[in-house]
Amino acid sequence: MFLSLIYLPLLLKIFSFLFPQKDRSSYLSKLGHWEYFFSPWRDTLLASGLFIFSLFDFYHAHPVRAFCFFALAILSVLNRLHRYSFRKAFCEWVYKIDNLEPGEFFETYYRGLGSFRRPFPQEARRVSFEKIDYRQGKATRQIFSPLILSAIDTATLAKLAIFAMQNFEGQKGIDMFDAFARIWGARIVQRAQISLECVPSPLRGEGKGEGEKLDGKLLLVFNHKSYLDFALNFFALGALQNKGRHLRPRFIAAKDHFIDNPLFYSWLGVGQCIQKAGMIFINRQEGKGWLAMQEAAQKLTDTDVEVAVYPQGTRAWGLLDSENNRIDAGYYTTFSKKKLTDPRGHLKLGTAQLVLDAALKLREKNESLQVLFIGIDGSATVGPKGSFKIQTESEVFYRLGKLWKVELPDVELENPQGQECSKEAHHNYLATLEAIQGQIDRELEKTTRRHKLLIERFVIDCPENGDQLEQYLEREDAIENNLPFILLDRLYALPHSLWRGYQEALVQLILHPAAPEEWEKLLLDVSLKLLRK
Known about the structure:
Layout: H1 2-14, H2 21-59, H3 63-96, H4 102-113, E1 131-133, E2 142-143, H5 145-167, H6 170-192, E3 195-199, E4 217-222, H7 229-236, E5 241-242, E6 245-246, E7 249-254, H8 255-258, H9 262-267, H10 270-277, E8 280-282, H11 289-302, E9 306-309, E10 318-320, E11 326-329, H12 350-364, E12 369-377, H13 379-382, E13 390-391, E14 395-405, H14 424-448, H15 450-461, H16 466-478, H17 483-491, H18 499-511, H19 516-531
Parallel strand pairs: 3-14, 4-9, 4-12, 7-8, 7-9
Antiparallel strand pairs: 1-3, 2-13, 5-6, 10-11, 12-14
Helix pairs in contact: 1-2, 2-3, 2-4, 3-4, 3-6, 5-6, 5-10, 6-7, 11-12, 12-14, 15-16, 17-18, 17-19, 18-19
């Protein structure tokens, strides 16, 4: 009885012609789900056991039972061959379609596992890279189920991508990984019932700085708000082309998340998949990060990929309004105890080092480096730091910022590699590094529009002095004094009960000019409160 249940989908798929034509697709899709979850262990462990039992029964003169066991074992072998040939053909089909709709992808895949036929639709459903919208028009909910379902989909896509890279040689297998990665981002949007839009439209050439084109060595720089950012990035940039092809983002990812974590590395397969695809893993132990940045600089200069990085190094704290509704995340809240009052303490220095080292390597080849800044808005409303509940009916925006062509000063530059500066070239390197860090900070803030949003919110919360506060903050923004905005951003990451006191203290500093020490004291107090949150 047990064996009949385990092998029933396999037997039924052989006689799939018995199903009515109108119901066949539904039946085969359900069988395909069964096959996906049960067939790997059935066609390996159980089939091996059945083969041994058939030999045992044949030796003890039970030919009928021996034949049955042997037939089931052979059936498993044939099924393994079918799965292999189907997956290979399926990867080829996906590879030819630029923007396959995620529902179509999974429906076709599971339906194919449920039948010996290869039912690839001739007119497949497609989606737009500019905007994808799976909102249902219902009330917002915060639930776990989209994350659980997305984890299952992630495992399916990761294993298919690994299969593709193992069975298709060279760049074709790698390009299949990127195609699956774009579908991954769209599937997350579908499961979460949200919308995702890339603005301004990359298809119209907007948002790239005076009509400049992506055509060469490119570094992608993002702000970081949510655990969903990594998955969404591939689809959100799907319309961008560099040298006439899709972007091939290769992220600098945390080794402890994707390699050292068995859940992500083995069970979901994400770690294995992105390792095989050429992602760069950083050891976040103090003093180890610069090695990953050197590897990234080498990869950027020697290979045909786009390196992608989060300069903040971790996710910003999710924010709530006065009624405890999610309102995305901040920008200046990714700091450590050692950098409580550092105006650039929210950014790691590694990205600036990557930009400088890559630009130096490319200068030796008479090539240049371009940096594209991308601001992510709304992803922390969907899935903020500290919560695994997905908020449905949300909107996520990817805002394309400046395309910066890196120009180095005409002086000798040499990376001291963490050692004491012993010559002028080392000092020049550190000075240039600091200038690049400032450029990264300015461009990321502009792309996320964080200062503008903070001004609007603070003026609404303190209407009695609204005009004066707005004028002051706009003036400080113009002269690139970030201190008031760092204070505001961290203040709003605190519990609502603490806002009023700190808002009043900040208003007093603005209306009655205070010494720098008073500003730093307030910033220190707010920052320490946030670290204890």
